[in-house]
Write a structure and sequence with these properties.
The chain is mostly beta strands. It has one domain: Nuclear Transport Factor 2, Chain: A (Roll), CATH 3.10.450. It has 2 helices and 11 strands, in the order E-E-E-H-E-E-E-E-H-E-E-E-E. The strands form 2 sheets. Strands 3-4-5-6-7-8-9-10-11 form a 9-stranded antiparallel beta sheet. Strands 1-2 form a two-stranded antiparallel ribbon. Strand 4 and strand 5 form a beta hairpin. The two termini are 33 Å apart.
């Protein structure tokens, strides 16, 4: 709850301040950065990107990709499957070449760890996402859970980071 002070003047010229409580508005989801997207057919994927994908997930069948450019960075989102299960790898172009930064898959809400569901419920009482993307971070093994609200398919309503058993609701959009 947030407090709002309301001045009240009475006939004696004395000002009385009355504190009233109003429910706090939920914080809006952070705005994603502007991104230029270029669809890329699997056959047109640069060999260095293909090699990085297959090194991270041998046996992956690549279906399609997108080149994304935002905030001075270049990424490839490469979608495909392993043994019929959908998977997406996000690769970042670095001076050393393309490297996998995230490995993503969709999950059911019931498959999300309890600590993450609790953190989301604390941040937004009663919130039940309609889509969940689990994003394993290649750098440190942390997992970002992107939680999408009904009617907002492009931007997560909440993101929760799980690292070393600690769930934390993020206040800023995760960079990858």
């Amino acid at each position: 709850m947030s407090r709002r002070l309301a001045p009240l003047t009475i006939a004696t010229g004395v000002i009385i301040i009355i504190a009233s409580c109003t429910p706090a508005e939920p914080e809006p989801a952070p705005a994603p950065p502007a991104t230029a997207i270029t669809p890329t057919a699997a056959a047109d994927l640069p060999e260095a990107v293909r090699a990085a994908v297959l090194a991270a997930r041998p046996g992956m069948t690549i279906a399609e990709a997108e080149l994304k450019q935002r905030e001075g960075r270049r990424y490839y989102d490469v979608e495909g499957s392993i043994d019929g299960a959908g998977i997406e790898l996000d690769l970042l172009e670095t001076p050393q070449g393309w490297r996998v930064v995230e490995i993503q898959r969709d999950l059911a809400w019931t498959a999300v760890p309890v600590d993450v569901r609790t953190a989301a419920g604390t941040a937004r009482a009663g919130f039940v996402p309609v889509r969940i993307i689990e994003s394993v971070q290649a750098a440190d093994g942390a997992v970002i859970y992107e939680l999408f609200a009904d009617g907002q398919p492009a931007t997560p309503a909440l993101e929760v980071r799980l690292k070393d058993g600690r769930a934390q609701v993020l206040k800023e959009v995760w960079p990858h």
